[in-house]
Design goal:
heterodimer; A: 8 helices; disordered N terminus; disordered C terminus; B: mainly alpha; 2 helices
């Protein structure tokens, strides 16, 4: 592929190389005898892969009666499957190699009669564990004579309900029409603040993980997500000027050929 | 240019994986706890295989660094120098 979307051929006419339009053969296009000379090995496989995809793309273009018929995707077999097989083979090979060459040490069995000094859930539940430590946010209500409406532990459980509820509601507030974050900076900012909050609340749950005053960590837990939201919104908002909003429009307007 | 990057990356990843494995064998007393890992003092090899492994470990570590730098820095610099000198000459 060339560096630019449009190049100029020998006649001076513009030829689109971004996949739209059929490019006529030029001097550099190999002849059929040259193509068939690559008769073995990876060169042959590569040639067949690209030639078949090119041919299928050409057939689909010629069969389709739509004006916007530029991208009709690759077939799952063999194109996507061969790529996926390569990736799967790599990762399976890495797992087999590492488990054979560097087997992990299996420690002694857990002693159920002694309680460990630090009790933490698995790492992917740190956020929920951190929400149980929101006691300082539980207000003392003066109407009740300075008492709290509910115990700190009940408050923490309710905080889980609120967070999970918010995560469940977001898809109904925003249907996800944006193809890039830059198209909807506000919702990108909401998402980034959520990602950062998931991290900071997890850090809060392990209070002595960061060598810092625990009150400062508590404040940063809620302040850093806001900072992330503002920064995300500002950056994306300034990016909008240079963004081509119809960049991907045609991909999602496509209909299959008749 | 992309080819040179891929070659450098392949050298870096392949040699790095070999070094990681050998260092896990020879220079890691234990993966448990907070002890030193991968860069601890290598023991005196008692067999010819141990000697080969420890030498190969150092070879792979330097190959990862020098090989990647060769493809990512030295060869592109050389190519650019040659292109600019040709441009000046013509």
């Amino acid at each position: 592929m060339s560096d630019t979307d449009t190049t100029t051929n020998a006649d001076g006419a513009e030829v689109r190389t971004d996949g739209t339009g059929i490019v006529p053969p030029d001097d550099e296009t190999p002849t059929w005898s040259e193509r068939k000379a690559r008769s073995q090995g990876l060169a042959r496989l590569t040639y067949e892969y690209f030639e078949r995809s090119r041919r299928e793309d050409q057939d689909l273009r010629q069969q389709s009666s739509y004006v916007e018929r530029d991208v009709l995707a690759f077939p799952t077999w063999p194109h996507e499957m061969i790529r996926n097989l390569a990736l799967v083979s790599f990762f399976v090979g890495m797992i087999v190699f590492l488990s054979a060459a560097l087997p992990p040490h299996i420690g002694p069995p857990a002693d159920s009669s002694s309680t460990p000094a630090v009790i933490l859930p698995d790492w992917y539940l740190y956020w929920s564990f951190g929400l149980l430590k929101l006691g300082p946010l539980n207000p003392d209500i003066s109407l009740l004579g300075g008492q709290k409406l509910m115990a700190d532990r009940t408050y923490g459980v309710l905080a889980n309900v609120v967070i999970v509820g918010f995560v469940a509601i977001v898809p109904f507030l925003n249907k996800g029409a944006a193809r890039r974050p830059v198209e909807q900076p506000f919702w990108a900012a909401v998402g980034m603040s959520g990602v950062v909050f998931a991290f900071t609340i997890a850090v809060l749950s392990v209070k002595n993980l960061v060598p810092m005053d625990s009150h400062v960590i508590f404040d940063l837990t809620f302040f850093l997500p806001l900072v992330a939201a503002f920064v995300t919104y500002a950056v994306l908002r300034s990016m909008r000027e240079g963004y081509m909003f119809n960049l991907n429009r045609r991909y999602y307007r496509l209909r299959p050929p008749k | 240019m992309a080819d040179e990057f891929a070659k450098g990356l392949a050298v870096f990843m392949g040699a790095g994986l070999a070094w990681l494995t050998l260092a896990g064998w020879y220079r890691t007393p234990s993966f448990e706890g907070s002890g030193i890992q991968l860069v601890a003092e290598a023991p005196e090899p008692s067999t010819i295989y141990g000697t080969i492994g420890i030498v190969l470990m150092d070879v792979m570590a330097w190959f990862a660094v020098i090989g990647a730098l060769t493809f990512w820095v030295v060869i592109p610099l050389f190519e650019q120098a040659r292109a600019s000198s040709e441009e000046r000459g013509s």
